Amino acid sequence: MNQFIIGLSGHIDHGKTSLVEAITGQNTDNLKEEIHRGMTINIGFAFLNEKITLIDVPGHEKFIKNMVAGVNAIDYAILVIAADDGIMPQTIEHFEILNLLNIEDGCIVINKIDKVDKEWLELVELDIKKLVKNTFLDNKKIHRVSTLTNHGIPEFKNFLLTYNFYHNRKDRGVFRLFVDRVFQSKGFGNIVTGTITSGKVKVGDKMKILPQNKEVKIRGLQTHNSTIDYLSIGNRAAINIQLNEKISVKRGNQISDIECFNVYEQAIVSIKILSKVNKKINNNDRVRIYLGTQEVMARVQIFNAKFIDASKSSFCILKF
Hints:
The chain is α+β, with helices and mostly antiparallel strands. The protein is 19% helix and 37% strand. The longest helix is centred in the middle third of the chain and has 15 residues, at 118-132.
């Protein structure tokens, strides 16, 4: 079965979580602090049907690493923009991240249309079209909805249910899954969840968990709340893992085939700074590196230069 992952992104309080709840009936805010503060902090998941998973990511700038973890393996992006606010700082930041991750398909939702008049709505839509011009969202569908009044919600839900999604993934034949959630289940032990980015897995397989570099056994598999014996690239997976020794498992860990991946302390890379960013990277600066759902710190050593300026690129060594 082909499964498709949809990621919602946008500025804080523009209605991503309420949009997910409106079309699925599920509230993805499940932390007490999220419910109390009325803002998404962690990644949230909901199922639209047996094939489509919705991932709701936080819009606040302080939780940008959680946003990156949430959209690292999506097939389709929904950029949510509130009609009364229009384009805001995290709207732009999230949109740039989607472009950096080479997302190829998506749409735009203007939420809270009940709060503005028609003329204002037209101006917001013009601003959005300027923002997405010559990108993967250029000429894509713009949906006007209100999660408060339910205006446009049935039509938007039907649009997603009938859309011809496609995968932009290369299967290298090697199993790889970046962990985005970890929890304990009574009688089962450690459960990890994530999206399979390559390869396949079946119950009974022996895998490796990184960076701990320890062997784990696959005790059970679930997808979309159904128990199954076999999963492959593109599937959302909940995996019951058996550990031979007591180790700490957390988001950012990787589960993969035993013989194919390792841990490295440094890497040679090419770094390019976005032209819109008014910053430069100096030699020996500390930077955050994101790989899948993992975040690590690194020092930058630039080849034959003291810094990399905006819109410029250079080869560097990253020392993690």
